Amino acid sequence: MMNARRWALTDVGTASVLALVAAGMVAGIAYRPEDVPINLIFLPLVLGILFLSNRVLPWFAGYVLIALGCAALLQEEFTARIVAALGVMAGVSVLVILMSLRRGQIGNVGPLRGQSMLVDLRDRILAQGEIPALPPTWLVESALSSAGGSPFAGDFVVATSGERNHRIELVVVDVSGKGEAAGTRALQLSGAMGGLVTALPPDRFLPAANDYLLKRAWEEGFATAVHVSVDLVTGVYELRSAGHPPALQRHAGSGRWQLLPAEGPVLGIVEDVEYTCYRGRLDPGDSLLLYTDGMVEEPRRDIDLGIDHMMGAAESLLRHSWDGLADRLVAAVGSPDDDRALLVVHRRP
C-alpha cells in the first residue's frame, strides 16, 4: 500500500513539473515569440508519454492541448509551418488521450514501468531453465531461439534437481502459437510447471500439467511437452512425452542415434490421460537430445527428414565438443520463423 501511494505521489509530482514547464513555454511564446518556437511545447508531452502512468497521462495530454490553444492565440501570424505544427501536436495529444484510456485496463502503469515488468517476466521464464549444479561427470545444456528474434517465445525449458542432487528433472515445453502470441501463455505455464515438477513424482507430473491446462480453459490452451527424470548415479532415466517430437539418444559405443518411443496425448485436450514411460540408461559417453518441433519442422518438408537433418548436423558439430553443442545446433538447424528449444544431456566418459 505504501509503495502504491509513493508511486502515485511521484506520478502527480512529475505531471506537476511538466505542467509548469509547459506553462513556462507558453509564457516564453508570449514575451519572446522570436526566441521560443511553438513546437517546443511538444517536449513536455513526449516526457509525459515516457514517465507518466495511464491514470495521469490523459489529463496531462488534455492540459497540453489547452497550452497549445493558448500558444496559438499568442501567434502574430499563422504561416503554413505553424499551422502544420499545431495540427500535428494537437493530433498526437488526442491520440495519447485515446490510447491512455484504452490502456487503462492494465492499471496505473507507465510505459517504462510496463516494459520493465515484461523484461522481469521474461527473465523468470529463463530462470526456470537454469541448469542446477551437477556432478562433473554430467553435462546438461539448453538453448532457446524465438520466432523473428522476439524476446518472448512459446518454447521453454524447466530444470530442477531432487533427491539430494542425485536426480535431475528436465522438461521441454512447446506452447501453441509462436513468438509474443505464445509468450504470454508460456509466462504463466512455466511457473506452474516449475512448481509441479518439483513437488510431484515423475509419473504424476504430466497428468498434473494436463489437468492444469484443462482448468485454464484458454482458447489455444494446448501444449506439447517431454519430461525426463535422470538418476545421476546410475544413468537410468524415465522419459514421458505429451504429443512431443521423439527424443533422441546417442549411443557412444556404436555412434548411432535412437528414436525413443515415448508417446502420449497433447496437454490440455483430453481429461484423465495416462502417459507411457520409456526407461533407458545413459552409459558413459551417451547423450540425450530433447527438442521442440521448430528444430525439425519446416514448410513442405517431412518431420522425419527434419530429424535426420538435425542428427546429421549434431554429428558434424560433435567434432569439436559436447560443450556448447546446444547453442551451436539451434543456430544451425530449424526454422527461423518458429520458436526453437533444445536440451542436451550428456554423460561424460
TrEMBL record:
Signal peptide: none
One Pfam match: SpoIIE
GO molecular function, one term: phosphatase activity
Keywords for this protein: Hydrolase
Hydrolase is among the record's keywords: yes
InterPro entries named in the record: Bact_Sigma-Reg, PPM-type-like_dom_sf, PPM-type_phosphatase-like_dom
The protein, known as: Putative integral membrane protein
UniProt lineage: Bacteria, Bacillati, Actinomycetota, Actinomycetes, Propionibacteriales
